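Hi F.,

I've been meaning to write this up properly since the lab meeting, where we talked about keeping a consistent format for the predictions we share between groups. The idea is simple: the sequence comes first, exactly as it goes in, then the structure tokens exactly as they come out, then a line or two of notes. No screenshots and no reformatting. I'm using this chain as the first example so we have something concrete to point to.
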Amino acid sequence: MKARRFGDTDLETSEIGFGTWALGSTWWGDVSESDGERLLNGALELGITFFETGDAYGQGANEELVGRVLAPHRDEIQLSTKFGYVLDSDRQQHSEGERPQRWDGPFVREALEGSLRRLGTDRVDLYQLHNPRMDAVESDDCFETLEELRSEGKIRHYGVALGPAIGWRDEGLGAIATRDIASVQTVYNLLEQDPGRDLMAAAAEYGVGLIARVPTSSGLLDDNLTPDTSFGPGDHRRHRPREWLIEGLEKIDRIRFLCEPDTGRTMAQAALRFILAQPQMAVVIPTITNEAELREYAGAADVPELTREELARVDELYARNFDVQPVSA
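Output, unedited:
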């Protein structure tokens, strides 16, 4: 497992991280706490050192799970968590609608203290604004408080995690240009490269690292979906239009050359290697829900990198929408 640096900062992590948000929840299948513990320990054994959580995941329950398992390895890993949402008493279930957000200084400090307590640590390596709008990016109070917390040693670096859906280009570019952030987290993968490409260009100029989430395009690039796949009530993809699935499967057929037997890569591993071929990318954080996924994603560190020719071919296909005609409504 190779290590990568976040832009011009001193934050260094494994190039493949662990997006822990599905552990102990029902928002992406059903991963029990005991399964989550096994996955976290297995990730450590495979060389993963970057673990990303958030106080809104399970209303803090996710942070507690991550902290409990990883506490004995605290000095060997990098912990990242997020803040901004006002939490309520429903701890285990994810709400499908967004909760209210706050960015004032007292709230930021209180949120961090809560995260530190649940994680069982005295510091986080990366503290991210969770789905900030422009009002958050423009909040001097928020960023002045983050600077104070950094001076106190309670956070090493801070950044912005864009969302909830793909986009938020202006917020990302604004944060890069006006704030002393270490990172921008965004949706970026083979099939969804924008606005990630604009964010990477700006990040390179300002010495900021990128975190790629949704690296397999919500499971499409795991290469195990079919036109007949249906998503159950506990799976957020049930909200996707059917065209997303049909068109996505056609696009995957166009890039199957990336995982021919002689490449030694699965489609998911090719998807991760594509992301890591981008120089400004610091870490990719797949959502991991079972041991097979964990081994396949971590195994992307050991397969051949994409060649210049393969990357050029992907660029040509992306520019033509992979030669896929939109499905009629």
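Notes:
The chain has eleven helices and ten strands.
The chain has one domain: 3-323.

If this format works for you, I'll send the rest the same way.

G.
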